[in-house]
Design a protein that fits this description.
By secondary structure, the chain is α/β, with parallel strands linked by helices. Helix content is about 35%, strand content about 15%. It contains seven helices and nine strands. The strands form three sheets. It has a four-stranded mixed sheet with strand order 1-5-8-9, sandwiched between helices. A hairpin with a 3-residue loop joins strand 6 and strand 7. Helix 5 packs across helix 6. The radius of gyration is 15 Å and the shape is globular. The relative contact order is 0.16.
Length: about 180
């Protein structure tokens, strides 16, 4: 189903960080083809507000769902494709359900979407442990980026966003499942 608040989320983040409109892709422009071909080295943060699925039975079938962008893509950005991206040192924000979840392998940890972004070189990944409501995610992310834009680090920004969400009356399900993972 559509994520109407994802567009608002993206636009709000762009305003908060004073980004050029070309730095934001939404709708059919937020495609797998674009992401795979984008010069990601230009950006310090990759933010994906999308549907996602962590497949515990078949971890390689986990995916972030984007528009395909071309006939050679299916729109399922899967772990092997994620690992091929050049995300050296970037912060990746996955405003997507269960992006930190996955089957746990002994000695390896969870085989999650977040893990695939680390394989691509991400320095940190903000991901979710459970499903989020679209509107709640937009509010929490707006607060996170407002704090991040003030010059503080991602961990402190997440703490502020959680605090603000809690005091705005959002249920714990809206903010407690966000996890900042770092290498």
């Amino acid at each position: 189903p559509p994520l109407p608040w994802a567009r608002r989320e993206a636009r709000g983040i762009a305003r908060t960080l004073r980004l050029d409109a070309n730095a934001v892709r939404e709708g059919s422009e937020a495609s797998e083809q674009f992401l795979k071909g984008a010069p990601l080295g230009r950006y310090s943060i990759l933010h994906l507000a999308a549907h996602a699925r962590a497949d515990g039975a078949f971890p390689d079938r986990s995916a972030v769902f984007l528009a395909p962008g071309g006939t050679d893509e299916d729109g399922w950005l899967q772990p092997k494709e994620i690992a091929a991206l050049d995300l050296r040192g970037r912060l990746v924000v996955l405003s997507a359900c269960e992006s930190a979840g996955g089957v746990v392998m002994s000695g390896e940890g969870p085989l999650s979407l977040a893990r695939a972004f680390f394989a691509a070189g991400a320095g940190a990944v903000l991901a979710t442990r459970w499903p989020l409501r679209d509107d709640d995610a937009a509010l929490v992310m707006e607060r996170f980026y407002r704090a991040l834009g003030s010059g503080i680090g991602a961990a402190a920004a997440l703490k502020i966003a959680r605090h603000d969400a809690m005091h705005a009356g959002l249920p714990a399900a809206a903010w407690a499942g966000l996890a900042l993972l770092a290498v």
